[in-house]
C-alpha cells in the first residue's frame, strides 16, 4: 500500500483546560521521514499538542490526523504503528526493566532486539531492577526503549534527553539518528537548541498555542542573516566612516573603545574588505570572529523569550 498522506496533519487545533486556552488554532504538517523538533517556551502548548496527536487528549476544536487516522476514533489501528515516549509515567512501577521491555517487544510483529536495544541505551546493567528503583535517567532511557522497540513508523518523543548526563544524551542522540536513518518519522519536543540543531530536519517554534515559524534550522537562521556580524579588536578611535565605506552595505560600529563590529549580511567580500582595511592601516586585527545567527537568536527574536 502506498502511503502518501503526511505523518501528522494538524489544522486549527484548539485545546482548553477550563478557562485556559493552551492551544489556539495551531497548524502543523509533518511529512513522512525525518525529524521535526517542536520548540517553545514553557507553557507554549507543545505537550498539549503532542498529547492530542497521541490520542491522550481530546481536542476542543480543529482537525488532527496521524498517519491519516483520527488519534481517538482510530486508536486501535493507530497504536501499533506509533511509538510514544511520555515525560514520565506509563510504566508499571514494580516490573523489572528488562521484563517490561521484552513484554512490550512481544506485543509487536517485528520488534527490535530488546537486549541489543537495552545495551545501546546502557540499560543492560539494571535489567533486573524494578522500574520505581531506577534512577531518573534510567527511567527515561527505558521509556525511550519502550517507545521504539516495536519499530513504529512514527515516534513522539517528549524531551527525550532532559536531565540525562552527557554520555546518556549522546547514546540517545545516536539511537534517534539511527531511527531516522531507518526511515522512522520522529516528532520531538525539546528545550535544547543544540539538540534541535543537531537532529532536526525541520523546527516548529510554538508560542502561545500557535506555530510561529516552521522551517529547517538553517533556513530559520538564514531568514535573519542580515544580523550576522564580524567582530575584532584594534587600537581605539580608528576612522569608522572609512571602515563603513569599505564594508558597505554592511555597517560599522565601535561599541566600546577598541572593539569593532561590522554588521549586516556578511559575505566573503565583507570579510575580505574588513581585513584589507585593517591591512591598509598596517593593523593586525585581534580576536577576529564571525558571529552567525544561531537558532537560539532566532528563537529569542521570534518569541522575545529564552527557552527556559
Ligand atoms: N491538565 C491541565 N490542566 C490545566 N492546565 C493545563 C493542563 N495541562 C497543561 N495546562 C496548561 O496549558 C498550557 C500549555 O501547557 P503545555 O504543557 O502544553 O505546554 P508546554 O509547551 O509543553 O510547556 P513545557 O515546556 O513547560 O512542558 C500551560 O499554561 C499549562 O499550565
From TrEMBL:
Record PROSITE patterns: ABC_TRANSPORTER_1 (PS00211), ABC_TRANSPORTER_2 (PS50893)
Any one GO CC term of the record: plasma membrane
Domain ABC transporter residue range list: 8-233
Keyword terms of this UniProt record: Antibiotic resistance, ATP-binding, Cell membrane, Membrane, Nucleotide-binding, Translocase, Transport
Alphabetical list of Pfam families matching this protein: ABC_tran
Family matches, as InterPro entries: AAA+_ATPase (IPR003593), ABC_transporter-like_ATP-bd (IPR003439), ABC_transporter-like_CS (IPR017871), ABC_transporter_ATP-binding (IPR050763), P-loop_NTPase (IPR027417)
Protein name, per record: ABC transporter ATP-binding protein
Taxonomic source organism: Actinospica acidithermotolerans
